[in-house]
Design a protein that fits this description.
Helices cover 72% and strands 0% of the residues. It contains six helices and no strands. It has helices spanning 17-21, 28-56, 67-82, 90-118, 120-143, 148-167. Helix 4 runs antiparallel to helix 5. It starts with 16 loop residues before the first helix and ends with a helix.
Length: 170
């Protein structure tokens, strides 16, 4: 969970344009880091969806699906930020991150119920489009070999072409 570590005064802060424009080979530790980040995001997305599903099905008390879940999200986020990133705290911090994801899903349940009342197909379409985009960028990052230019090109190219693959247009 290196992506959650705090910066020290000795590190550069702010946006680094050179890092974005650097098309040199990706080192193995960078690819491993990308794998861990995408894995954590995939788990958080799944847990968020499960939290929303549980709240919609009534498995979560109605009083907890609004303001109380928002307060819990804020509290857990502050606790996550204030916990020192270290190998000993890694599992605890991942648990807090997944807790935030579940609570955010519970918090979104009311909005999702309103959308389902309007048109249930919207929820399915949004889920599928989000999954396709996330999968395309993840695969582009993991399968790009050692070339960064393919990382950028692969994500941008595979996202719009995937719907054509499944729709029978091409």
């Amino acid at each position: 969970m290196d992506f959650m570590r705090h910066r020290t005064d000795s590190e550069r802060s702010g946006f680094d344009l050179q890092g974005l424009l650097d098309f040199s080979a990706l080192e193995k530790p960078v690819k491993q880091h990308l794998t861990k980040v995408y894995g954590a995001l995939a788990m958080a997305s799944t847990i968020c969806a499960a939290g929303a599903y549980c709240a919609i099905q009534g498995l979560v008390p109605a009083i907890f699906t609004g303001f109380l879940s928002l307060i819990a999200v804020l509290g857990l986020t502050i606790w996550l930020i204030s916990t020192e990133p270290s190998p000993q705290n890694q599992d605890k911090r991942m648990g807090m991150f997944m807790g935030v994801a579940a609570l955010m899903g519970i918090n979104m349940a009311g909005l999702i119920e309103m959308v389902i009342a309007i048109n249930p197909q919207i929820v399915f379409t949004a889920l599928m489009v989000t999954t396709v985009v996330f999968t395309c960028f993840s695969l582009a990052a993991l399968l790009s070999g050692n070339q960064r230019q393919f990382l950028y090109l692969g994500g941008k190219q595979s996202t719009p072409t995937t719907p054509h693959l499944f729709s029978g247009d091409g």
